Automatic annotation (TrEMBL):
Name recorded for this polypeptide: VTT domain-containing protein
Organism for this UniProt entry: Halorhodospira neutriphila
Lineage per the UniProt record: Bacteria, Pseudomonadati, Pseudomonadota, Gammaproteobacteria, Chromatiales
Main location: membrane
Topology versus the membrane: Multi-pass membrane protein
Annotated localization: Cell membrane
Length: 178
């Protein structure tokens, strides 16, 4: 789970548990601990960078810098109000599941709170994926195809949003120069 997306691994593990007649709980625990470990490593790296250092870099950055101080303030306010929910439900969305660990570490969200919401969200998403593989039984390929489509759409939407944000900021930086 540190390297492989849960949408690829967990349905297969649910299917394997179905085929073997064994319960899916050991695989669910292992997958959830692996996913939580990966997210916690990202969180720890962000904690090492330090939110104040990032803020100074953004405030003193050049015109091509995409983030501005008011963006940090908005993210901070959002995390202060909904940080737990963002970390918890962010685990259900490809790409976001990793990225949400960065602001949680930079702000910083308390480690225990981050760990709790990460473990809960990762376990819930893995349970959904494994449950799908387990209940699909011999037809688990249909589930992995649907999840592949979900992952591709969610990733494409995230990339498109980032691209639109980047283009607007760069356009604003260029227009501001004139």
């Amino acid at each position: 789970m540190l390297v492989v997306a849960p949408e690829l691994l967990m349905p297969f593990l649910g299917y394997a548990a179905y085929q073997s007649g064994e319960g899916p709980l050991p695989a669910l625990i292992a997958g959830s601990l692996g996913g939580t470990t990966g997210s916690t490593l990202i969180y720890a790296a962000a904690r090492l960078v330090d939110g104040e250092r990032v803020r100074r870099w953004i405030v003193h950055g050049g015109r091509w810098q995409l983030l501005r101080e008011h963006d940090l303030e908005a993210i901070d306010a959002l995390f202060q109000r909904h940080g737990g929910a963002l970390v918890l439900f962010g685990r259900f969305i490809p790409t976001v599941r990793s990225l949400v660990s960065v602001p949680a570490g930079l702000l910083p969200m308390p480690w225990g709170r981050f760990l709790l919401f990460t473990l809960l969200g990762t376990t819930a998403w893995n349970a959904v994926l494994m449950g799908g593989g387990y209940t699909m039984g011999a037809n688990w390929e249909a589930l992995t195809e649907a999840l592949g489509t979900y992952g591709a759409i969610a990733t494409a939407v995230t990339i498109a949003a980032a691209l639109i944000f980047t283009l607007r900021r760069l356009r604003g930086a260029t227009l501001g120069k004139r």
